[in-house]
Amino acid sequence: MVGPSFKAKGGIATVIANFRKYYRSNKIVYLETWQEKHRYFAGIRALFVIRKKIRQEKIDIVHFHVAQKGSFYRKALLSYLVPRYTHYIFHMHASQFDLFYEKSPRFLKKRIRDVLNRADHIVVLSESWASFYRGLTKTPISVIPNAVEVPKEANYDSDAKKNYYARASRRAKRKL
């Protein structure tokens, strides 16, 4: 599994942390491409170790967690280093990949489509994203919404007089 450190902030890091917590019985090898304190070091290190890790660990499938901009470019570069006998998945978490793609120059749009077409499978978070990516690639696409950890005991009071709406996300203009 390739993506940011599970200790980092953000949605992808949370997804990876959940994989680490709930899929302990599966043999999953993690390769960090981004860390809060060492932003560039982890990505550069990944370039040098990905092939070796695939070979040593006898990895069959590489699962890339991808957002837009730098995240996409890092994973795209790493995907070219995956040996042909190893399959790879692009798990798209980007909340604004459509804007990233639209604002990219023509030559980069072609490269983006090429990278998506090389993947063996693409995972997206919703049907609307599946529709968007189907417009870019012929690669098979699956929809898997992000999992939410549900507490064992709910503190919900059905007789409460007021209703509250709570939202948990990084505070950003695009999320308002």
From TrEMBL:
Transferase among keywords: yes
Question: What keywords does the record list, in alphabetical order?
Answer: Transferase
Q: Which Pfam families match?
A: Glyco_transf_4
Residues covered by the Glycosyltransferase subfamily 4-like N-terminal domain? 38-149
Q: Does the keyword Iron-sulfur apply?
A: no
The signal peptide, as residue positions, is none
Give one GO molecular function term.
Answer: transferase activity
Q: Which domain of life is it from?
A: Bacteria
Record's InterPro entries?
A: Glyco_trans_4-like_N
Instruction: Tell me the protein's name.
Output: Glycosytransferase
